[in-house]
Structures are given as structure tokens and as C-alpha cells.
Automatic annotation (TrEMBL):
GO terms for cellular component: cytoplasm. Binds 1 divalent metal cation per subunit. Can use ions such as Zn(2+), Mg(2+) or Co(2+). Its EC number is 1.1.1.262. Substrate binds at H138, T139, K281, N290, R299. NCBIfam families: pdxA. Pfam families: PdxA. Its cofactor is Zn(2+); Mg(2+); Co(2+). It comes from the Bacteria. This is 4-hydroxythreonine-4-phosphate dehydrogenase. It is an enzyme of class 1 (oxidoreductase).
């Protein structure tokens, strides 16, 4: 395993991000990590939970041979944070964590970044009117920060008998009414190419098999329940098959998430957020991972939210963060390109 550190952004300071990051850092982790957070926030949360943070080093003064050493890259809060209480004035702090981690990954300072959960609503409340525009989520923000024209959001996790489920999205954080218009041939073509390329280069799958969901019930039922399959999805799949992509579908979303069908593919492409992710989270919750494909850097994340009601209680499950960190370490030390 490489000794280059992973950057862990602690996300919304009032949520569970700071404490689950600390709990993971004090346990068994697969590689050196540096925690991006306000130093005093971490100390206060550790004291609240009775955690012994042991020896602490300010980044980059750390010793990768001593895993008990907690390394912190201090970024100051805009205003003090209380567990469970959102504070819009700290929106700029949350974005500063992401900006610093992204910068470090781009310039080679960090091997990859792992992100704890953020709260999109309070970020938008906090940055409203300052010219930064609407914040729709990690995925879109990191694409903008790295000048990446299009990225793909994919969640993954084990289910059943240690089988791997991977679900990517053709559209991400959009109101449902806006999905059909966003589902155009150019975007869908690029999404499938990115998914195929990263399954090869990042996951080492030589010939990825991608199961594609239809948009409408029964995959449109030959146009009787919608024409998106006929007008957009099927022509795109047919064209990409001529380029060598192995694509299955479009299949009705209500039946494709069955083990016999999932076994025929390496990943599923769902057409919108709540078509694919509820199934994956039901099957893998607590150990699921969010991966952003198409970026020039490696980024993984937890598959859950800020859990404000659990913040400061020490009851939050750290399984997803551990899984995300393990995958980031694996992806950063293996190249299949």
C-alpha cells in the first residue's frame, strides 16, 4: 500500500462527519490519512465523545509508520459549531475543505480524497447572494473545480453473498420533472463512455457489462408509456454497441434489480437518482460507497447524510466511511489503464 496520504474532508461540522472521521482515524485504517477540519472542532467533538485523540500532528508533519498518529490539516470554521445545529455561516468552511482537498489531489500532494457528508440546504442558504451560485452536491461541485465537463455518480457496495452491486446515474440531483429533458443522446453517450472507461481503468474490468435501465415504467412498453426509450436510450445503446461497449437493455427498472439479472452485468446505469439508489442503499446501507467517475482525481464518499440527530452521540456507524477509505486506497495504488 502506498504511503501517500488520503485527504478526508469532514463535511458538515454540525453533523456526524467530524466524529466518524476521528473514530476511523483512531482505529485500523488501510493507509495514512490527513483529516481536513477545524482543529478545535475535532478536539471539542473528541472531548464530547470521550475519545482519546492520542498524539496529533499538523499536516504535513506526520509519520506514516505510526498509524496511531492523527494528522490534521487545519481549516478554520467561520463560527463555532454545535453538534446537531446547522449554521449557514459555516457554508464557506465546508467548501474550503473541498477546495483544499481537490487542490491537493490535483497537484499530487494527496493520493485521493474521501468526503464525509455535507448538507446541501445549509450550504445554499449560507452562500446565497455571494456570487458562487447554486450548490447541487459534491459530484457537480468537484466537476466544476476540476474543469471536468461531465462526471458520473456511482454508488457501490456488497450485498447477499458478498456480491458487488454498482449503480451509476445518468442524471443526478435534479427534480423529477426535469429528468426527461436532461436525458439527451449526447449526455447519455458520454455517461456510458465514462462508466465503461472507468470500470476498465479504475476497477480492472477488462470487458465491462453495463445493464441500462429504461426511464419509464416497463421501459416505455413500446412507446405506450413514454418515448424516451425509443427516441433516446435505444439509439444511443445501438450506436455504442458498434464501438464495442457491452450494453444490456434498456430493461424495466422494477425487475432488473434481481440477482439473476444483476449477475449478468458489472454495473447498472439508472436514469435518475431515486430509480437506482434506494435499491442499492437498501441492499448495502452502512457499507455503501459513492464514487465520482470521470474526474482527473480519485474521490470516494460515504453513502449517507449528515445525521444531525446522531451528531455528538457517538452512535453513528462508521462502516461506510471505512469502506470508502479502503476503496480510495485501492484505487490510488492500482492502475489498470
Amino acid at each position: 500500500m502506498s504511503q501517500q496520504a488520503l485527504a478526508i474532508t469532514t463535511g458538515e461540522p454540525a453533523g456526524i462527519g467530524p466524529e466518524i472521521t476521528l473514530q476511523m482515524a483512531l482505529g485500523q485504517i488501510p493507509c495514512p490519512i490527513v483529516i481536513l477540519a477545524d482543529r478545535q472542532l475535532l478536539f471539542a467533538r473528541a472531548a464530547q465523545l470521550g475519545l482519546d485523540v492520542g498524539r496529533v500532528a499538523a499536516w504535513p508533519d506526520y509519520d506514516p509508520t505510526q498509524p496511531a498518529l492523527v494528522s490534521i490539516l487545519h481549516i478554520a470554521l467561520a463560527t463555532p459549531s454545535i453538534a446537531g445545529q446547522l449554521e449557514p455561516r459555516n457554508a464557506s468552511y465546508v467548501l474550503a475543505l473541498l477546495d483544499r482537498a481537490t487542490q491537493g489531489c490535483v497537484n499530487g500532494e494527496f493520493a485521493a480524497m474521501v468526503t464525509a457528508p455535507i448538507h446541501k440546504g445549509v450550504i445554499n442558504e449560507g452562500i446565497h447572494g455571494d456570487g458562487k451560485g447554486y450548490f447541487s452536491g459534491h459530484t457537480e461541485y468537484l466537476a466544476e473545480q476540476t474543469n471536468t465537463p461531465q462526471v458520473v455518480m456511482m454508488l457501490a457496495g456488497e450485498y447477499g453473498n458478498q456480491q458487488q452491486m454498482r449503480v451509476a446515474l445518468a442524471t443526478t440531483h435534479l427534480p423529477l420533472k426535469d429528468v426527461p429533458a436532461a436525458l439527451n443522446a449526447a449526455s447519455l453517450t458520454t455517461t456510458l463512455r465514462i462508466l465503461d472507461a472507468d470500470l476498465r481503468s479504475k476497477f480492472g474490468i477488462a470487458a465491462p457489462r453495463i445493464i441500462v435501465a429504461g426511464l419509464n415504467p416497463h421501459a416505455g412498453e413500446s412507446g405506450h408509456m413514454g418515448r424516451e426509450e425509443i427516441d433516446v436510450i435505444i439509439p444511443v445503446l445501438e450506436q455504442l454497441r458498434t464501438e464495442g461497449l457491452h450494453l444490456i437493455g434498456p430493461l424495466p427498472a422494477d425487475t432488473l434489480f434481481n440477482p439473476p439479472i444483476l449477475a449478468q452485468g458489472d454495473a447498472v446505469l439508472a436514469m435518475y437518482h431515486d430509480q437506482g439508489l434506494p435499491v442499492l442503499k437498501f441492499a448495502t446501507f452502512g457499507a455503501g460507497i459513492n464514487i465520482t467517475l470521470g474526474l482527473p482525481i480519485i474521490r470516494t464518499s460515504v453513502d449517507h447524510g449528515t445525521a444531525l440527530d446522531l451528531a455528538g452521540t457517538g452512535k453513528a456507524d462508521i462502516g461506510s466511511l471505512i469502506a470508502a477509505t479502503q476503496l480510495a486506497a485501492q484505487l490510488s495504488t492500482h492502475s489498470f489503464a
